[in-house]
Every structure is written in C-alpha cells, then in structure tokens.
Amino acid sequence: MPASSAYGDNRFAVAPMIDWTDRHCRTLHRQFTRHALLYTEMVVADAAIYGDRERILGFADAEQPVALQLGGSDAAKLAEAARIGEAMGYVEINLNVGCPSDRVQSGTFGACLMKTPDIVTEAVAAMKRSVSIPVTVKCRIGVDDQDTETALDDIAKGVFGAGADALWVHARKAWLKGLSPKENRDIPPLDYDRVYRLKRHYMNQFIGINGGIQTVSEGLEHLNHVDGVMLGRAVYHNPMMLSEVDQALYRSETTPASIDAIIDYMCDYADAHIASGGRLSHVARHMVGLFHGAAGARRWRQILSTEANQIGANSDVIRRAYEAVQSAAAEKAA
Ligand SMILES: Cc1cc2nc3c(=O)[nH]c(=O)nc-3n(C[C@H](O)[C@H](O)[C@H](O)COP(=O)(O)O)c2cc1C
C-alpha cells in the first residue's frame, strides 16, 4: 500500500453529490460505517457566507467525520467560507474543481478552474491560512482539449505547493461544451492509470481516486496504487455496501449494526425530523436503494416513493415497507 500522508486514514470516502449527500443521506450512510469520510453537497462560498447558515451548513455530530465541499474561485470568499465551515465543526474543507454544470461555469468555478491553476493555487493558499483543519481539492484529469498529463500536473503542483492536504481526482475529463453534467459523469472515458501515475510522482502526498468504482472490493484494488478511494453513485444506489467498509478497509473488528437496528434508528430519526417541521420524504428518498438486489426491493421502493410524499406520512411508512421486505425474504427462504 502506498505511503499515506498527515491527512490521515481517509482511505474511503463517499463523494460530494448535489441534492443527494445532504445531512439525511449522510445520517443513513453513517449507520453502515464509522470510518468512511462523508462529503457534503457542494456549497457555494457566497451561500456559506451570506445564506441561512443552519439550513445550508447545519449537521449533527453523529454524521462525523464530515468534509465540507465549497465551490467558488474568489480566494478571500473561499477563505471566509472555510473559516465558517471549520467553526461549524467540519473536519475538512474541499474545493470543487470538477463540477461541469452551466450554472457553475458561469460563476467561474468547478471544472473550468482546471484551466486556471493559478486561481486554484491562490484559493488553496488562502484557505490554508484561514483554517487549521485539512484543505483538499477534488478535480478532473483535465477539461476539453487539455493534455491530461500537463493539466493534472499543473493543478497538483499548484495545490500541493500551496499546502493542500489531499487531492481527489475524478479520473476522467469534463467536456465543458456539449455534454450535460450527467453525461460528463459517464461519457468521457475513465483513465485510472493517469491518476496512478500522478501518485507515483507524489509519493508523500495523499492522492485519492474517484469515478466509476462500483464495489468496495474494486476500491481495495485501487488502494494498491493510490491512498484513497471515493465512491458516489454506487453507494447512493446501494448504501448497504458501506457495511463492508470498516472491516475491509480499516481492519475494524466491530460488527456492523444489524439492518433491523438501522431501520429502527432511521425511523426515530425521521420522526424527530418530522416533529421539527420536516417531511418524511426528505429522509426516505435516500433510503430507496437500501435493499438493492434483495428480495422485496421493488415493493420497498414502491412503498417509500409513493407513500413517503403523502401529507402526514411518518416512520410507519418505513416500517410497513420493511415488513414487505421481510416477508419477501421469508417467502424466498421457504
Ligand atoms: C447527483 C450528483 C451530484 C453531484 N454533485 C457533485 C458536487 O456537488 N461536487 C462534486 O465535486 N462532484 C459532484 N458530483 C460528482 C461525484 O462527486 C463523482 O465525482 C462522480 O459521480 C463520479 O463518481 P462515481 O462514479 O463514483 O459516482 C455529483 C454526482 C452526482 C451523481
């Protein structure tokens, strides 16, 4: 396994995903793993500074360790947003240099920053000066017609020179014109070797890999070449895979919580959220993938996606859906 840096033992992370990795999603994911690093959705620096702080940045201790991902390009604003994030209790601040959406491009941040490594370097340096927690960057291997050898080297040189504690690389280019953000997560080909090469060049820095990794065991393979693996969609659509992480990657001897206990926890959590003015669907929508591939999965999805949206819905919906899964499993076993 490659040498790790002072960044610590963040060998497994759940990727930042807008609209998906909110606090409810992270609460669910945390039930399956004590160790994985969980990322927030990207929060634009202005929103962190001027927005409703509790709504945008609030989270519970039980979700920790949680890293805050920021979007922006103005070094002073990013430094201020990072300071706010540190004060709110996040364990790391990450800068988004990989998101290709139009909205993001017009604000000159996200993936288009791959073209301006100096701006990224300046931003990282400013954030490092303003906080004492790790500052990291998540980038692509390049954009558009960039040469991925020089584009990624330039970013890495700049951010490590500015003191970044880790670089997470989504191992494909983003094509800023002509592809939707969704297509940009699938169509540009993956190039894991490019990230492995970067790691060989930076033996003493933490380099993590992201993109297209489907299982925890695939993740383990990557750890022969890099320091960390970050999974996004595969985990979101099948959160139960996280129950393998602590034992497989962190050599934990603690037995993962049972699914019964996790359902109970999430029911209590959902009812507390409803009691404070929220809706069941805010929590239940992240649970739809829970029984991925198991008997009763379809019924589970159906009940959650139709009934959780109804006015007055509470955790009874989750319990009813879980009973359907249990009876499907019993029928299959009989
Ligand atoms: C719904 C969705 C939202 C995303 N939002 C972000 C984001 O806020 N910041 C970011 O850096 N990447 C974002 N991404 C990209 C993921 O972090 C990740 O790089 C990408 O999905 C590739 O990893 P995967 O193949 O494991 O999903 C998003 C991806 C999805 C599917």
Task: Describe this protein's structure.
The structure is a single chain. This protein starts with 11 loop residues before the first strand and ends with a helix. By secondary structure, the protein is of the alpha/beta class. The mean pLDDT is 94. The chain has 15 helices and eight strands. It is globular. The protein folds into two domains: 239 residues, TIM Barrel (Alpha-Beta Barrel), CATH 3.20.20; 75 residues, Up-down Bundle (Four Helix Bundle (Hemerythrin (Met), subunit A)). Strands 1-2-3-4-5-6-7-8 form an eight-stranded parallel β-barrel, surrounded by six helices. The site of flavin mononucleotide (FMN) has 23 residues, from strand 2 and helix 10. Flavin mononucleotide binds next to strand 2 and helix 10.
Quick tags:
334 residues; alpha/beta; Four Helix Bundle (Hemerythrin (Met), subunit A); 2 domains; binds flavin mononucleotide
Radius of gyration (Å): 20 Å
DSSP strand tally: 8
- Relative strand content: 5-15%
Strand line-up in the sheet with most strands = 1-2-3-4-5-6-7-8
CATH architecture of the largest domain: Alpha-Beta Barrel
Q: List the uncertain runs.
A: none
Number of helices: 15
How many independent structural domains?
2
End-to-end gap: 45 Å
Q: Which CATH C-level class of the largest domain is it?
A: Alpha Beta
Helical amount among residues, as a percent range? 40-55%
Name the CATH superfamily classification of the largest domain: Aldolase class I
Order of helices and strands: EHEHHEHEHHEHEHEHEHHHHHH
